[in-house]
Amino acid sequence: xxxxxxxxxxxxxxxxxxxxxxxxxxxxxxxxxxxxxxxxxxxxxxxxxxxxxxxxxxxxxxxxxxxxxxxxxxxxxxxxxxxxxxxxxxxxxxxxxxxxxxxxxxxxxxxxxxxxxxxxxxxxxxxxxxxxxxxxxxxxxxxxxxxxxxxxxxxxxxxxxxxxxxxxxxxxxxxxxxxxxxxxxxxxxxxxxxxxxxxxxxxxxxxxxxxxxxxxxxxxxxxxxxxxxxxxxxxxxxxxxxxxxxxxxxxxxxxxxxxxxxxxxxxxxxxxxxxxxxxxxxxxxxxxxxxxxxxxxxxxxxxxxxxxxxxxxxxxxxxxxxxxxxxxxxxxxxxxxxxxxxxxxxxxxxxxxxxxxxxxxxxxxxxxxxxxxxxxxxxxxxxxxxxxxxxxxxxxxxxxxxxxxxxxxxxxxxxxxxxxxxxxxxxxxxxxxxxxxxxxxxxxxxxxxxxxxxxxxxxxxxxxxxxxxxxxxx
Length: 474
Hints:
Blueprint: H1 14-17, H2 20-52, H3 55-60, H4 63-92, H5 96-131, H6 139-151, H7 153-168, H8 173-196, H9 201-224, H10 241-273, H11 277-314, H12 317-350, H13 357-370, H14 378-389, H15 394-414, H16 422-426, H17 428-446, H18 449-473
């Protein structure tokens, strides 16, 4: 079946042969809209509980719970991001048989990882939330929300892995459509289960769980009903060890990087929590506003990763370099525009979440300090996305972990005790973004990374062929 499906590629693949800026934008906008609905999906929870339940519930659906979820989920999703890189490279190289094996291995990982995380998250969440200094009046709400969330984590993984497969082959539209449906379902359930049936945080959590199940079902239908080479046969879901090894080699650094990000954010969240419930709620609301910037950067990052991966697989290395410059310019312009919007309009945006004057005041202090520095993050997202698409993930992981995570933790440990103010906590962000961006620019232009990746990729292909030959003989 897999060999027959190699014929089912698009004859004109614009990613490896079209106008670069048009291709990037045509891929970027569906991803952006998709991440917008993902962010709206999460923001709706915060808006509804903030307005109809209270600031304790607002702090519970963000803040410590979001940080802990990102820590546990990020490791598995980061590892699985290696699958998207591998699939995009194999698809770009027109290798139908290996693409099939990668797809089924990816889905096996989603099921196994989701089940493991569901158990881990349910068991450790209460103790972890207490260790993060979650305020006592927020803690019961947080435990309720996070435990229900983890009950739906398998569905969450299936959606994320499945949509990653679709984006890896250049289809960014269907994941968008799925998110639009689930976002609307989530908002409707939030209103029903919080406003009309006053379940509070539990209602929001149930709405999120049901929406995750629907998104998983939609992506499974899409993958199982296609005739393209990324077709998913549920009976063939299993781990292919050589393919799993290749995925993990690329994905583990991304997973560890995500864990380091989350650990540093946990330390920051713990520091924020010591300033009280108002500060925790303000930080949660800021995180939802701030999330719209990260969704834009994430969309550029996914676009450049897929573009780089397919062109690397096709041997079009010149297009990788050109795309970095183009994508960097587009994302920098977007960052400047977004900074201006939230800097001058932040007060009105905050009032969507809460009418509490103390929360809004603290939130505006955070927003006006951080918004002007968003542009300093751009190089990190674009360059790391481009080199990751070519399969280079280890050294970028170290650059990110040291430049952002380690330096950020050092700031919280050393600088914040000297001046205990929420503004001093926030300063850790622009400082670490700037340092890490400079490091990535130096690495990209003087590290010889692409030449090394071409050589390494050839070695991996030869090793994979030897392992497959041995397995066939056995």
